[in-house]
Design goal:
It is built from eleven helices and twelve strands. With about 300 residues, it is an alpha/beta fold. The strands form two sheets. Strands 3, 4, 5, 6, 7, 8, 9, 10, 11 and 12 form a ten-stranded mixed sheet that branches. Helix 1 packs across helix 2, helix 1 packs across helix 4 and helix 6 crosses helix 11. The protein is rod-shaped, with a radius of gyration of 31 Å.
Length: about 300
């Protein structure tokens, strides 16, 4: 007995007529009659007797209905689950981000996403790239938000935006009369260097070495926000990602674009072996939109 046979049989048995069953199933009466006749042909026995225009279930139908009802309930549960998933019902998104995104961009993105998807729950972690890749491998998180991730087996990388490095200086320090500053004009200023342990720090180190730029490095730090705070305290200047630079709390620093520009991708990473849920894909799309809006500030 096929599922369609079971569905039609259940509707006819429950309603008592082909006409009522057709209304329940939202199909035509001839369609119900045809499926019912085919079910009886496949089974090799009658399910209903036609008595003065009425359908009377046979003893076999009574016994079959008990099992069909169980299958029908399971199918209804499956339909409800499918509808809930489609309408973004109660779901959980486990997301990790490098610290720079946790200052403003990720919290504001999650908050705005919840306005439209209020039943969604989030687990949020702040991790460095290597920790994030391990969390994906262990299935502890669904997606990660990271700067310039290097290729890694089993890792899917989806670029959502392109950002660039900028120069941060104390608000009282005027290093250029223009909104753009040349790298070679920074050599004589006290410099706060980002650690080369992160993918982004490694990229910046390579690009500065390519330009044979010498800096008076006085501090090295591996947390970009700490670098920004050191600039705000007047300790020196730094070259930093524009997400950190433009996040809330930069009243005591000034931002200059860098010439020539050094750009890098912002990407969402996920496990290749596990497709993202519908709600997670919707969040990634929202994250892409909010990231690009944030970079237009």
């Amino acid at each position: 007995m096929r599922l369609r046979h079971a569905e039609v049989f259940h509707a006819v048995y429950s309603s008592g007529s082909v006409t009522a069953a057709a209304k329940i199933l939202n199909v035509t009466q001839p369609s119900v009659s045809k499926v019912l006749a085919h079910a009886e042909q496949v089974l090799g026995y009658a399910l209903f007797e036609r008595v003065r225009g009425a359908l009377i279930p046979t003893p076999e139908a009574h016994r079959l209905f008990k099992s069909v009802s169980t299958v029908y309930k399971d199918m209804e549960q499956l339909r409800r689950l499918a509808r809930n998933l489609q309408s973004s019902g109660e779901s959980r998104i486990r997301v990790a981000a490098t610290p720079a995104f946790g200052l403003q961009l990720l919290p504001s993105t999650i908050a705005s996403f919840l306005l439209a998807h209020g039943k969604t729950a989030f687990d949020v972690e702040t991790l460095h790239y290597e920790e994030m890749a391990l969390a994906l491998e262990e299935q502890r998180i669904d997606i990660g938000l990271v700067f310039a991730p290097p290729p890694k087996p089993g890792l899917g990388i989806d670029e959502i935006a392109t950002a660039e490095f900028v120069v941060l200086a104390p608000v009282h320090l005027k290093i250029s009369g223009k909104p753009v500053v040349n790298i070679r004009d920074l050599g004589n200023l006290p410099f706060i260097k980002l650690s080369g342990r992160s993918p982004l720090g490694q990229m910046l180190t390579r690009r500065l070495e390519d330009r044979s730029t010498e800096f008076k490095t006085i501090i090295t730090c591996d947390t970009y926000h700490v670098g920004k705070l050191l600039v705000a305290e007047g300790a020196g200047i730094t070259i930093i990602d524009e997400i950190t630079a433009q996040s809330a709390g930069h009243d005591d620093v000034r931002i200059w674009r860098l010439k020539p520009a050094i750009r890098f991708p912002i990407s969402v990473i996920h496990a290749d072996s596990r497709p993202l849920s519908m709600i997670a894909r919707q969040f990634v799309e929202h994250l892409q939109t909010r990231t690009r809006e944030f970079l237009d500030l």
